[in-house]
Design a protein that fits this description.
The structure holds 3 protein chains of 3 kinds. Chain A is an all-alpha fold. Chain A is built from 13 helices and 2 strands; from the N terminus they run βαααααααααααααβ. Chain A has a two-stranded antiparallel ribbon. Chain A is globular. Chain B is mainly α. Chain B has one domain (2-293): Orthogonal Bundle (ABC transporter involved in vitamin B12 uptake, BtuC), CATH 1.10.3470. Chain B contains 13 helices and no strands. By secondary structure, chain C is α/β, with parallel strands linked by helices. Helices cover 32% and strands 23% of the residues of chain C. Chain C has helices spanning 46-53, 76-82, 99-106, 109-112, 116-126, 142-154, 172-187, 199-205, 228-236, 295-303, 326-331, 352-360, 373-386, 403-415, 433-448, 460-466, 489-496, and strands at residues 8-16, 21-30, 35-39, 61-66, 69-71, 84-87, 160-164, 191-196, 208-213, 216-221, 253-262, 272-280, 284-288, 314-316, 319-320, 334-337, 366-367, 370-371, 421-425, 452-457, 469-474, 477-483. In chain C, the strands form 5 sheets. Chain C has a 6-stranded mixed beta sheet, sandwiched between helices. In chain C, strands 16-19-20-13-21-22 form a 6-stranded mixed beta sheet, sandwiched between helices. The longest helix of chain C has 16 residues, at 172-187. Classes of the chains: A mainly alpha, B mainly alpha, C alpha/beta. The interface between A and B is large, with 45 and 48 residues.
């Protein structure tokens, strides 16, 4: 009989191997899935994982999609480590887009180098403010932040819908629900000729670096880790639990808000009813697959970005539904959670030894 | 008076998916397991039910299939959290995300398909009685099923030995294990039941409530059901009350619109979500009630140290 | 002479875990009607052995014979069918359920039928263990809860009753009553396996003793003919260490508790009522009490883990600190060793170095908001060395240390911060004898260096050994501290039962009095 047994020390090997195992297993699922859908698995694999990045433009797209994921996941990871479960990043992203985009619309036509920085700040604040609501509800009312932050996602989407259908609708937009296109001063500068890659990528890298510094080296980061691992020990050390909750939520909210304004000031260039293909939720997966660690998050973001692009490419080249992306994302997370178990536990075969009879 | 009866019927109908899902999750949580994957399980149940109903021509077969699908998906969660001891919160989230993706994927071919759903009862003679007819005999068969489920869960938890054992496991799995009860097996069963109920809730939505399939049609009800269990402080009769309260709120948006109000639809659509937040805050405030009623081991993994 | 067949006979029982061999070739024989002690210090393997007998754990090797016939005890239900009952050290009760429901859960179907409440009343009164069947367990005192555990076993007509450290939660008077019950059962032919490390009790109660050390049997004897010293020698392979004392020289008051009243934030907890206490520099004050009488709440209020509105209720060096959190109090010179090592005194998944940072960050371990990793590791390394902590080094994970070693690390971490006031809650609970002696000596050395030390413990022997003055906590109230020399175990025992609380006094409580000690 095989039993699960606690390891005396966590396995270093599995700490690095489990995301790789999860990724490999997900790809393996693809190999099973594609034939079932009547596609040659090699072709499908090529269309999904190789074709999207075989050109400079493709690489640019990869990094472009990875940026918001890196940004949001880093912010979320800080909170998750502290056991603060911000699930509403998608809503905070939306609010950031609304705040930054709103500022862009208010300053429509103004040509100043200050417009962009102001928008970025507004976006971060927008996301931060939206995350403050679940933080307040948790510290004041002990309300579970998973449920409250998630409910606010639905509310944020509806607020955006309201704005682009009514108050902020482009009068020359043929009645489509969209805002005016942003002017140049409100758009992120391009980074690489021949791609859509913009300065948002640099922000993402900066946040990754700051995140690493914060989580691994700073005292506050240490305190948040303690709060996540052992709340009684945190209390013993005098670490304020409300402060941990606020920090955990606000950091995630600010990062998500920043990602939101990056999207509307970047590839989208205006406000639409939908400003994100689920980045806020994908970032949750990225945070886990990246082991809540900024370096891991970089790689996990690239992988997730590739899954997004692969889905689009598969749709174009193989007439596969784009929903296959969501399927892979969920599968990846499941495999990761399963593989992670082996960091702290291992299989042991337990043999029932025959009982000896009493010595003669 | 008849419109009032109509209103009651509609409210009950709107609240029924919440009744199914929340009662199932309540049983799961009573055993000490927190399964956040309700939304995902409901979506899977909805799409499978619709699929089978459409392919086989029998909506009831669809309901059965949806229920089974919900239970099946819940077992993925069960294996990872109960046997592999992974974090229940993260795994439940994974289940929801997976369910969204899987249901969208499977349901692609069925988006504009039309099926003959399950209609509300129409018993000749009885259903036509003024007021009483609608109130007592005008509901969808699944609504009656939800009443039965409520009674069954209530009696199970409060009056049977098996229910007592379940409560004990949720209260202190170590003590239950020390006495000799198979804690893991009991939790598997509780998760299975919760999954089946969530699948049933989803099936109700796609085969009876509004017979159609649209990606994401559960629209957050799974999450509301989770909030409901907290709101009800893990008591079945409060789940019932809360579910219908939310059913009423959901209905309100259509009523207000039907009355020709100029309030933009989005504000009304926000109502259920905002209501959930408010209700959660009010209930969670009472830390004592939570401590006394919440299963003490909720969310914590159990490893028989043997 | 006809040889009596032992009721229970173990031969060569062995059980190994990844990091330790808990039981190594253990032989044991219990005769019918015999009260048989299993003696050993913490970590000797007693609990594992009992779990094997009760079917919770399966042995790797060895044989079990029940009344002469070999049996395999695969699970607790099988053990109960054979007639084995177990009263757990940490009680396997369900707080939110009633006494009757708790008992029903442990009974097999064939015993659970009939009028259970009536049978409970019958058995409990017959053996002098009064119980009400419809009371919820969370309203009951620790002593009452033990009665539920015992009655639960008795209802199944046990032929062998296993008692795992039963007296750690009882006053001396309650211990006497328990012994009466056990002698009665023994007289009726029920065998009793009595697990303990308390030598005096074993000598008073038991007919035979099997001594375990490090998983092996080191001897069997008749404890009535042995002295505590000889038993100790079998138990730890040497003499029981006694700490070196100097005469106490108490000076200025350092910790003053004045009128501390605090409602418990746990519905099953005990609220504090008008607690008054003074601890001076250069003395050790002890607080005795049965667990569940407010110790948790008092510790939290003193350490700063819970703050109180009345800032002056707790004063450190004359500064009112009631509103300050644990970290702020540390900056004023307070050190605290909590009751729970893993999860409160240390983060189980973090290394010893990271755990050093938990309370010692003021020792130059943080600069400008950043952690100085080298300084942290050095602090941990020095602590490990100074306090003889057996661990893999500063990078060893806290969870991997034995109870005694982790406790030494935590005590060392606190002492090396040169506190002015040291509070220690259950400092040697679950710790092996060698480490316990080191820890007690460390506390005495601290006192000799002029620190004010407060120790809360459930082990009366320990308190009498190291404290200069003794106070008693019962039902959330504190009986005045008196010099240890001028009191004795019996008097303290009376105080632990709440004798000092005036009849009719109604203490401020928000929740059901979980700490109330019932009659006897």
């Amino acid at each position: 009989m095989i039993r699960l047994e606690a390891r005396p020390e966590p396995s270093r090997l599995f700490r690095w191997a489990s995301p790789l195992i999860a990724a490999a297993a997900t790809v393996a699922i693809g190999f099973v899935l594609f034939p079932l859908m009547g596609r040659n698995p090699i072709d499908a694999f090529h269309a999904f994982f190789v074709k999207p990045v075989d050109s400079l433009y493709g690489v640019g797209e990869l990094l472009l999609k990875a940026s918001p994921l890196m940004l949001i996941a880093t912010g979320l990871a800080a909170g998750y480590r502290a056991n603060v479960w911000n699930i509403g990043a998608e809503g905070q992203l939306t609010m950031g887009a609304i705040a930054g985009g709103g500022l862009a619309l208010a300053l429509h036509g103004v040509e100043s180098a200050l417009v962009m920085p102001a928008m970025l700040v507004a976006g971060a604040i927008g996301g931060l403010a939206w995350a403050a609501i679940p933080a307040w509800l948790r510290t004041r009312f002990n309300a579970n932040e998973i449920l409250t932050s998630l409910m606010l996602v639905y509310v944020a989407t509806l607020v955006l819908s309201l704005l682009v259908h009514d108050a902020w609708r482009d009068p020359e937009g043929f009645n489509f629900p969209q805002s005016k296109m942003f002017t140049d001063s409100a758009l992120l500068p391009n980074l690489l000729e021949g791609t859509r890659l913009n300065a948002g990528f640099l922000f993402a890298l900066a946040v990754i670096a700051l995140g690493w510094l914060f989580m691994q080296k700073s005292y506050v980061g240490y305190q948040m880790r303690v709060a996540g691992l052992a709340p009684a020990a945190a209390n013993y050390a005098g670490i304020s639990s409300p402060r941990t909750v606020w920090l955990g939520m606000l950091i995630g909210g600010a990062c998500a808000g920043l990602a939101g304004v990056n999207e509307v000031a970047g590839p989208i260039g205006q406000l639409l009813p939908s400003v994100s293909p689920g980045y806020g939720f994908a970032a949750i997966i990225v945070a886990f697959v990246g082991r809540l660690n900024p370096i891991g998050i970089v790689f996990a973001s690239l992988l997730m970005s590739l899954l997004y692009l692969g889905g689009e490419s598969a749709q174009l080249n193989l007439a596969l539904p784009s929903a296959v992306t969501g399927l892979f994302q969920g599968t990846l997370l499941f495999f990761l959670l399963a593989a992670d178990v082996f960091i702290h536990y291992r299989w042991r075969r337990v043999r029932r030894r025959a009982t000896r009879s009493a010595a003669a | 008076m008849d419109t009032l009866a109509q209103l009651v019927v509609l409210t009950l109908a709107a609240g029924t998916p919440l009744v199914f899902a929340a009662l199932g999750e309540l049983v799961t949580e009573k055993s000490g397991v927190l399964n956040l994957g309700v939304e995902g399980m409901m979506l899977v149940g909805a799409v499978v039910a619709f699929m089978v109903a459409s392919k086989s021509g029998s909506p009831w077969l669809g309901v059965a299939a949806g229920t089974a699908a919900g239970a099946a998906v819940s077992m993925i969660f069960a294996v990872i959290t109960l046997s592999l001891l992974a974090n229940q919160v993260a795994t439940g989230l994974a289940l929801s995300i997976f369910g969204v993706g899987l249901s969208a994927f499977i349901g692609l071919d069925f988006v504009s398909v039309v099926i003959a759903g399950i209609k509300p009862l129409a018993i000749p003679g009885l259903s036509d009685l003024p007021v009483v007819g609608q109130l007592l005999f005008g509901h969808s068969p699944l609504v009656y099923l939800s009443f039965v489920l409520f009674v069954a869960v209530h009696l199970f938890l409060g009056r049977t030995r098996a229910g007592l054992v379940l409560r004990a496991v949720g209260e202190s799995p170590q003590s239950a294990h020390a006495i000799g009860y198979p804690v893991i097996a009991i939790r598997y069963a509780a998760v299975f039941f919760g999954g089946a109920c969530a699948g049933l809730a989803g099936a109700y939505l796609s085969v009876a409530y509004t017979p159609l399939w649209v990606e994401g049609m559960v629209a957050g009800r799974g999450w509301i059901a989770l909030a409901l269990v907290v709101f009800a402080t893990w008591k079945p009769w409060r789940v019932l009350g809360g579910a219908y309260l939310f059913g009423g709120v959901t209905l309100a948006q259509f009523q207000v619109q039907a009355m020709g109000s100029s309030i933009p639809a989005q504000y009304l659509s926000m109502l259920p979500y905002v209501a959930t937040i408010v209700v959660l805050a009010i209930i969670s405030r009472d830390a004592v009630a939570i401590r006394l009623n919440a299963p003490a081991s909720l969310g914590k993994p159990f490893h028989p140290a043997a | 002479m006809a040889e009596t067949v032992p009721r229970l006979a173990l031969a060569g029982i062995t059980k190994a875990y990844p990091s330790v061999v808990a039981n190594d070739g253990i032989d044991l024989a219990v005769l019918p009607g015999e009260i048989h002690a299993v003696l050993g210090e913490n970590g000797a393997g007693k609990s594992t052995l009992m779990k094997i007998i009760y079917g919770v754990v399966k042995p790797d090797a060895g044989e079990i014979r029940w009344e002469g016939k070999p049996v395999a005890i695969g699970n607790p239900a099988r053990a109960r069918k054979l007639g084995i009952g177990m009263v757990f050290q940490h009680f396997s009760l369900f707080e939110t359920l009633t006494v009757a429901e708790n008992i029903a859960l442990a009974l097999d179907a064939r015993h659970a039928g009939g009028d259970l409440p009536a049978r409970i009343r019958d058995v409990s009164s017959r053996y002098g263990l009064p119980l009400e069947a419809d009371r919820h367990v969370h309203t009951m005192s620790v002593g009452e809860r033990q009665r539920v555990e015992i009655v639960r076993c008795l209802l199944q007509d046990p032929r062998l009753l296993i008692m795992d450290e039963p007296t750690s939660v009882l006053t001396p008077q309650a211990v006497e009553k328990l012994f009466e019950t056990l002698r009665r059962l023994s007289g009726e032919g029920c065998s009793i396996l009595y697990i303990s490390h308390k030598l005096d009790e074993i000598r008073a109660l038991c007919h035979r003793a099997t001594v375990l050390r490090a998983g092996k049997v080191t001897g069997t004897c008749d404890p009535r003919r042995e002295s505590s010293a000889s038993l100790a020698r079998m138990m730890i392979g040497g003499d029981l260490p006694h700490p070196r004392h100097r005469e106490a020289n108490a000076r200025e008051p350092r910790l003053v508790v004045d009128g501390l009243t605090l409602a418990s934030d746990d519905p099953f907890g005990t609220s504090l009522s008008d607690v008054r206490l003074t601890v001076h520099a250069g003395e050790i004050v002890g607080i005795a009490g049965v667990s569940g009488n407010g110790q948790k709440e008092l510790m939290a209020a003193l350490s700063g883990e819970r703050t109180v509105d009345d800032a002056g209720a707790v004063r450190l060096m004359d500064i009112p600190v009631g509103r300050l959190d644990a970290d702020a109090r540390r900056s004023l010179g307070l050190a605290f060793v909590p009751e729970e090592r893993l999860g409160r005194g240390a983060v189980p998944e973090m290394t010893l170095a990271e755990n050093a940072l938990l309370s010692a960050h003021r020792m130059g371990l943080v600069r400008r908001g950043f952690v100085r990793a080298d300084a942290v590791r050095e602090y941990a390394r020095a602590t490990i060395e100074a306090f003889n902590v057996k661990a893999g080094g500063p990078d060893a994970v806290a969870r991997s240390l034995s109870g005694g070693n982790l406790q030494k690390f935590i005590v060392g971490r606190e002492i090396r911060q040169a506190p002015k006031v040291m509070i220690a809650a259950q400092p040697t609970w679950g710790v092996d004898v060698g480490a316990a002696a080191q820890i007690r000596q460390a506390l005495i050395d601290l006192r000799d260096a002029g620190v004010a030390v407060l120790v809360v413990s459930e082990e009366l022997d320990e308190l009498f050994e190291i404290c200069d003055r003794l106070a008693v906590i019962a039902q959330g109230r504190l009986a005045e501290a008196r010099p240890t020399r001028e009191t004795n175990a019996e008097e303290i025992g009376m105080l632990m039962s709440g004798s000092f609380i005036a009849a009719g006094t109604h203490s401020e409580r928000r929740f059901s009095p979980a700490g109330a000690i019932g009659p006897g």
